[in-house]
Design a protein that fits this description.
The structure is a single chain. By secondary structure, the chain is mostly helical. It has seven helices and no strands. Helix 3 packs across helix 4 and helix 4 runs antiparallel to helix 7. The two termini are 29 Å apart. The relative contact order is 0.13. The mean pLDDT is 85.
Length: 136
Amino acid sequence: MIEAGPENIDAVLQFQAISESSLSYDLLYESLATSLNHVPMIKIRKVLPPLINTMSNHFDLNHDQKYGLFIHIACMIDRIIGKEMIKETKHKEDLFDKNPEAHKYVMHCIHAIEKSFGIIVNDDEVAVVLMMCCKL
């Protein structure tokens, strides 16, 4: 019930479904505010929710997958801006070849992130986002 937010309390008490678009990111913001060192939370709050909602709808992600993707992308941006070492993703080329449409869509979303944050996302990070979106 806490995750649903106070605006949805009536629906929760009546055991009605709550659309994911009405779920709040507030708990994520609070958690990430203490974890992210290089990216301003105000920018994360502005850019990521609409992008994550679009990706979630496209890939039919459930609540947990959607929030996991949000956290991963926020931390990815922070790692890139902080110039931290990025772990190599094995078999990424095979992943891209086997999922060309999904790869194209993820790249479209990644370009929006790159533009908004002035970063370059490498193929290893793209592969991880693709695996999350395709539930691999």
